[in-house]
Design a protein that fits this description.
alpha+beta, 115 residues, 5 strands
Length: 115
């Protein structure tokens, strides 16, 4: 897994084509998430609290690959169903992770910067 500090593109550049991940894909992404979080040095503080994080899931297609972008945050957000939650900084209260559906693994995990 690669840390995303230098590789995380803006949301709009993740892929123009979308798909709706089914429950099986989301279950696989969720099952693999704890290990991906534990492997990323900047996300160590998230690991023991991961079950309490709220999430958004976005199915995106990059080239021929299907991915699920997981957008995690530690506080409930009223707008979770209406819009993408994007926060600059915020530290380990916010993370993003990109799951490769075919490889069944996370390509990267990114934790927001402090501030």
């Amino acid at each position: 897994m690669v840390g995303a500090e230098d590789t995380f593109p803006p949301y709009g550049e993740l892929g123009d084509t979308r798909f709706l991940p089914d429950d099986t894909i989301l279950d696989e992404a969720e099952a693999a998430l704890p290990a991906a979080i534990a492997a990323e040095p900047r996300s160590k503080a998230i690991a023991p609290r991961l079950a309490s994080y709220h999430r958004q899931y976005f199915g995106i297609i990059r080239g021929a690959k299907r991915h699920v972008l997981v957008n995690g945050f530690c506080q409930a957000e009223e707008r979770i169903r209406e819009q993408t939650i994007m926060v600059k900084d915020g530290g380990d209260c916010f993370f993003q992770a990109l799951y490769d559906v075919t490889a069944k693994r996370y390509e990267w995990v990114r934790v927001n910067g402090p501030g």
